[in-house]
Amino acid sequence: MKIIYMGTPEFAVEPLKRLKADGHEIALVVTQPDRPKNRGKKMLPTPVKEAALEMGLEVVQPEKVKGNEEFLEKIRELDADIAVVAAYGQILPKEVLEAPRLGCLNIHASLLPKLRGAAPIQRALLEGYLYSGITIMKMNEGLDTGDMIDKRIVSISGMTADELHDELMDLGAEMISELLGLAETQGEEALRGEPQDDAQATYAPRIEKTEALVDFNETADDAFLKINAMDSWPGAYTYYKGQMMKMKDPEWYGSDYTDSKCGEILEVSKKGIVIKCRDSQLLVKTIQFPGKRAMSVAEFIKGNELEEGVILGQE
After folding, report:
1. What's this model's pTM, rounded to 2 decimal places?
2. Are 247 and 287 in contact (CB under 8 A)?
3. How high is the mean pLDDT in each 10-residue block of the chain (315 residues)?
4. Could you tell me the domains of the chain?
5. Residue 74 burial (CB < 10 Å; 0-12/13-18/19+)?
6. Is 191 left (phi over 0), alpha (psi -120 to 50) or beta?
């Protein structure tokens, strides 16, 4: 099939590679413009752009697609069979959706209609979902509101955002590969879907950095979920003696400290630091201070001090 591929982050790389390996003609790759990143604010390409250029594919990076007549003319001239979209980052107008012969398919990282929007992976973990998955949908002008063509479920209990990201990325690549294979033999019939129940819809807005602050006045479950959900970005954090401290690798901890305060460091050992939460305790095994790499507590305390009795969260 002749495909227009639209995607931006790492999540969209594996499906692109899979479709190219399947022998489809990737007529054009559309991704977001290069943006300044990191402390040096160096202009960096998107992961999809990097992968596409390595494969020798043509790449365009429109600042916006809505009302962009030059872009619309270009994709119409391609006379593509279909467009595949994965975390592209812009809502597509009707003219773009209708340009390919069979329309546009979206690889969405949730079980629609749950968690429509920009951050379904992190929101699923943050909200304590037991299951998530991939939905392939036929796109319309709404925000993740199109008919669902295929849906597959994965168990996500205890996962970090990185782990769930990679599993869903691979699953999305597998599903879109299989679906386009069917579309080649069965035509448009293979792309028929079922409408979403809007009454069951929930939303997954973008993660803000301020959301990554862990409040130990909440339950140990809440802290555990937040640390795992913010694992890769922006990184769950608290304050140790006024200094930001990021946290990874949490575990529930069963000992009872009835007289301790929420946020208090109860134990420091090679296992990690035990922190009092509202209802119980949490063991955190990996920490990171500004300007330093993340390291296990066992490694950190070889040359640095972590004091028991300190109340975390106080700037």
Report:
1. 0.94
2. yes
3. 98 98 98 84 92 98 96 97 97 97 98 97 97 98 97 97 98 98 93 97 96 96 97 95 97 79 95 94 97 96 95 86
4. 2-200 (3.40.50.170), 209-300 (3.10.25.10)
5. middle
6. alpha
